[in-house]
Amino acid sequence: PQNDAVKTPEVGGPTELVLEAKPVILFRGQSTWDDGFDTLMESFQKLANEAKRLKLGTPGRPQAAFTATDDFGFKFEAMLALDSDPTPPPAGIGKEFSIGKSPVGKALKFTHAGAYDDIDTTYEAITAYLDEKGLKARNIFVEEYMNDPKTSEDSALEMNIYVLVE
Asked: 151 by DSSP, 3-state: which?
């Protein structure tokens, strides 16, 4: 029988680590919360297409760093890690893309397994953990998508969430 009960996402972590700066191809954007998942997935596809067009090696998984949030939406930097630092930036790189570095610093890594639609539950658990431990986040959260979910309701999504802390 089919189980239609709402699945609670699994939250794992945290693991303490230090994020090292890696060369990335970047796409900056913004979205409403309602369109967030689709906007991020489209951004990752644009990055993959541009990296392929420029013949840049992208060994890692797509990431999104959230740079500003409010009640209506968010600003982000979608990133794909590069296997080498292209200095100077490749000729002909699209005007909406840039070469940069990934966020760096002391971080806590949490995991989210479940639908993107349920990510609020994971962020509430992260916030509760930070409050309980008296830790202060640096207002940079990085989501790393470990697989390719088809929709925001795809419960097979696996994600790492890096919280940069002071």
From this structure: coil
